[in-house]
Amino acid sequence: MGDERQELLARKAAGGDKAALDELLALLRPQVLRRCARFLPCFEDAEEACQDALLQVARTIERFEGRSMFSTWLYVVVANSARQTYRTLKRRAVEEAHEAPPLDRPDPRTTSVIAGSRLDFLDALERLEARRPDLVAPIVLRDVCQLDYAEIAEHLGVPVGTVKSRIHQGRTDLREYLVA
Questions:
Q1: What are the residues whose beta carbons fall under 8 Å from the beta carbon of 175, sequence distance 6 or more?
Q2: What residues contact 63, with CB distance under 8 A and at least 6 apart?
Q3: Using CA atoms, how far apart are residues 37 and 109, in angstroms rounded to an integer?
Q4: Do 1-102 and 106-180 share a fold?
Q5: Which of 40, 83, 160, 167 has a CB 3.0–4.6 Å from the CB of 153, allowing a cystine?
Q6: Using an 8 Å Cβ cutoff, are 85 and 52 in contact?
């Protein structure tokens, strides 16, 4: 029932219904925050990515054409937002490290296996994106968002075989980055 309501609100919002957009954003917030937390181990960072993702939904909802399910479109927005938040935080941390003494905030890589592995995964995705950007979206949609191959193919506009091939190649490349 919730998914049907979400899809209906998304179609209305895409058509310019402001009340539907407001209701949709309120409905989405908890699930968007959970999805952002899959990427970002620090709750405050996940909240920042969540806000950015919801803002992106509000700004670009008219681009949702209904060719795929809204939830698939949303996965992409959330994944991109979380990854962009991570890049911004990483860049900010590097800049601050050059300007000020180190903060007392511990590095999640050394304090939590789960948090550290998420950050290592995000770093590996960045390295993969620099070399093969076409492999990143299929990996994120399959391994993080847990979409099936057909949904990914529909969203990316490529055959299922291409999706499977890109996921296989992307995982192979990511393994190299994660062990290095």
A1: none
A2: 14
A3: 16
A4: no
A5: 160
A6: yes
* Separation of alpha carbons 50 and 57, rounded Å: 10
Structural domain boundaries in the chain: 1-102, 106-180
Pairwise CA distance, residues 140 & 64, whole Å: 20
Please report which helix (H) or strand (E) contains residue 162, including its range: helix 160-179
CA distance 137 to 33: 20
How far is the C-alpha of 165 from the C-alpha of 44, rounded, in Å? Answer: 36
Instruction: Name the 3-class secondary structure at 27.
Output: helix
Mean pLDDT by 10 residues, the chain (180 residues): 83 94 96 88 88 95 84 87 84 68 50 58 85 89 84 89 94 83
Provide CB contacts within 8 A for 64, sequence distance 6+: 10, 11, 13, 14, 70, 73
pTM of the model: 0.65
CATH of domain 1-102: 1.10.1740.10
